[in-house]
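Page 37, top half.
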Amino acid sequence: MLHQMKGVIMSIRTIIADGDNQMKACIRYYLKAYKQIEIIDECGNGMELVDKLLQWQPDLVITEINLPLLNGLEVMKQCSVQNLDVHFIFLAESEEFAFPAFELEATDYLVKPIEKFRLYKAIEKAKRMIAWKIENKELVSFNNLPVKYSKGIHYIKKEDILFIEKIEKKCYIYTTDKVFETQENIGDLLNQLNDTFLLSHRSYIINLEKVVEVRSCKETFIAFFNGVERGAKISKLKINEVKKRMSDLLKI
């Protein structure tokens, strides 16, 4: 992954992807101005890019969004599934896919023909984001949940999380003093949490250690927590598992 020394970025390992060889050559030429950019590979379609991402686990990808076989947005989603921490700078023929790209937390989105100063601005943005991670690497640990949002990443102590609620395409992470909003998938969040967390309902993850009361409510159940008025749903299919898991935790 990222090479560094004494908090200084030594190199940003980068893959260039585009079906147009001339475009790849152009990007490669522009990047010569950046000694920190280390081009480790190139490819011409989305399927090949996924393979190279798994192989190299780069820091940065500069890619055409409308790649053959698999488009750039799908490639970025694959990164999320594989828990790869990669920054994406997209290149496109129009602004058509800009909104979904930024919804996926793309670092930047450039419309062709690519102007050198605009690419450099995107590179500088990626450098700042990567440098911030280096400076705050103590936040990225087993005890923290990294959560992407529009301006970067929140690092939330897992022990502070009460529950997570999914509403439409967003998830809301409740702690005793704050609510965090993210576009991340509820299943992806669950995969990063430990056994004290349970998917109690298709739209809720609860921290079993933080539940103070469970009440029945019509066709479902509601879990309550100290410090927040809002509760989290527990489906009828999950209530017995919740009770057993909470009982097991009390025995530890």
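Page 37, bottom half:
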Amino acid sequence: MKNTVILLVDDDEDDCELFIAAIASLNKNILTTISNNALEALNNLKIATVLPDFIFLDMQMPYLSGAEFIQELRSIPELSKIQVVVYSSHSHETLKKLTNDFSSVQIFTKPNNFPELVSTLDGIL
């Protein structure tokens, strides 16, 4: 069975730990890597031999915002088809405005509790 590969781009260590725990609880074949910096993530994707199936992306990131990251990602043909899921503490309406220019981007507001996070991730993956 093929593994699903996820790249989480988030600079909040606590949120990353919670995300990894939620993924682990799904009992699916999922490999997750984390980048704490959107610019670093983009540079790593450009040279990667294995691309992720999903990128979970926080919008407020150092060096390169989430919107700038998506814009750069979509401009590179080899990377443009990766499914991006905006995963942020902004309200859903704010996220819709921030990602309005990008089709094929899913969004969800970081849930307030673990079971909701697990449920949301299970629905996406």
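Margin note: Residues 13-25 form the longest helix (13 residues).
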